């Protein structure tokens, strides 16, 4: 079984305006609401790929109910801890360009935080846990470390997609996969990265620090897969970009879902890239048919 963990879910409120007038009145030309947060996006794309999964994390209030009901209607099993505070709303403003305004997240009480640790302690060897996104500040800086320790103790594989110290601390528990984008990798090491060679060099450092596989995503420039002894580059299929929100999460879902369904590493890499691009070319997240259409267009070459 695959479990996703979203510590800071959201409603992603996508707002389109023709031209943004800062300080003026703007009328929306269109608006859309999606259940959001990185682990939840992973769950939704895993569902498209036919990979059974359960979404875990914290949800509260009217916003939390929207997220849970939408996931359940979409056939995703949910087992969230109910919190007293409201789940956040993240604004995705489209005005020719994309501007994002993400909330800090709700207050999580100590007993709520403990309840999730307890739920997660039921995972077993053979399970894969995908931990994705930011943590609300009220959880404290060590909460991800607690969760990855639980995965490590139970013997379950885990993937972690977060930033900074939380990501670095997780490496000692040997994650199956980490997927920084090129900006996050540069920020992690405090180095400006201008070439793909630099991305490979620093990606390898993450392997040395414990990761089993490293995917470095580079938006329209494709991605690098770095393993213990080999490096591969994938380019992206051609298409018109409509929405880059959730492209990274879709890539993780494509990669992990394909491995969980028993296929090899190259197929997982190909499906990961196709899933990221299928989301980038859609209003919402990738659908199975769009992923299948794009898979044959992904070229992989050994570095
Ligand atoms: N402009 C784009 N054109 C085609 N594919 C894209 C584009 N942006 C993202 N993707 C796909 O999604 C993957 C993840 O995107 P990226 O933006 O790097 O991740 P994140 O959302 O984590 O920042 C890319 O490796 C690529 O496969
Ligand atoms: O584009 P990405 O990085 O894959 O993730 C998109 C998701 O991340 C969010 O921007 C939240 O990110 P954070 O958890 O880092 O605040 C959601 O609103 C959105 O659904």
From TrEMBL:
Domain Carbohydrate kinase PfkB span(s) in chain numbering: 7-281
Checking InterPro entries in the record gives:
1-PFruKinase, Carboh/pur_kinase_PfkB_CS, PfkB_dom, Ribokinase-like, Tagatose/fructose_Pkinase
What does this gene product do?
A: Catalyzes the ATP-dependent phosphorylation of fructose-l-phosphate to fructose-l,6-bisphosphate.
| Single GO MF descriptor | 1-phosphofructokinase activity
Q: What is its EC number?
A: 2.7.1.144
Under catalytic activity, the entry for this protein gives: beta-D-fructose 1-phosphate + ATP = beta-D-fructose 1,6-bisphosphate + ADP + H(+); D-tagatofuranose 6-phosphate + ATP = D-tagatofuranose 1,6-bisphosphate + ADP + H(+)
- Its annotated pathway? Carbohydrate metabolism; D-tagatose 6-phosphate degradation; D-glyceraldehyde 3-phosphate and glycerone phosphate from D-tagatose 6-phosphate: step 1/2
- Specify the enzyme's EC class, one word: transferase
Protein name in the entry: Tagatose-6-phosphate kinase
**What keywords were assigned to this record?**
ATP-binding, Kinase, Lactose metabolism, Nucleotide-binding, Transferase
Similarity remark? Belongs to the carbohydrate kinase PfkB family. LacC subfamily.
Keyword Kinase attributed = yes
A Pfam family hit: PfkB
């Amino acid at each position: 079984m695959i479990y996703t963990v979203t510590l800071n879910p959201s409603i992603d409120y996508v707002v389109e305006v023709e031209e943004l007038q800062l300080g003026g009145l703007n009328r929306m030309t269109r608006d859309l609401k999606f259940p959001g947060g990185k682990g939840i996006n992973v769950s939704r794309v895993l569902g498209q790929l036919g990979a059974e999964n359960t979404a875990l994390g914290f949800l509260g209030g009217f916003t939390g109910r929207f997220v849970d009901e939408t996931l359940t209607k979409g056939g995703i099993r949910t087992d969230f801890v109910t919190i007293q505070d409201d789940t956040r709303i993240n604004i995705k403003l489209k005005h020719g360009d994309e501007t994002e305004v993400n909330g800090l997240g709700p207050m999580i009480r100590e007993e709520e935080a403990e309840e999730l640790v307890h739920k997660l302690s039921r995972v077993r060897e053979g399970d894969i846990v995908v931990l994705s996104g930011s943590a609300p500040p009220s959880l404290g800086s060590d909460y991800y470390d607690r969760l990855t320790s639980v995965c490590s103790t139970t013997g379950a594989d885990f993937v972690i997609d977060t930033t900074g110290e939380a990501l670095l601390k997780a490496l000692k528990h040997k994650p199956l996969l980490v997927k920084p984008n090129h900006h996050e990798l540069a920020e992690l090491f405090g180095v400006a990265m201008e070439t793909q060679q630099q991305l490979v060099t620093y990606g390898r450092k993450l392997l040395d620090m414990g990761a089993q596989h490293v995917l470095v995503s580079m938006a329209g420039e494709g991605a690098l897969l770095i393993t213990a002894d080999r490096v591969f580059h994938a380019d992206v299929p051609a298409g018109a970009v409509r929405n880059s929100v959730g492209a990274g999460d879709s890539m993780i879902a494509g990669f992990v879902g394909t491995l969980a369904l028993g296929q090899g590493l190259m197929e997982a890499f190909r499906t990961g890239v196709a899933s990221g691009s299928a989301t980038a070319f859609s209003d919402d997240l990738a659908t199975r048919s769009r992923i299948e259409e794009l898979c044959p267009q992904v070229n992989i070459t050994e570095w």
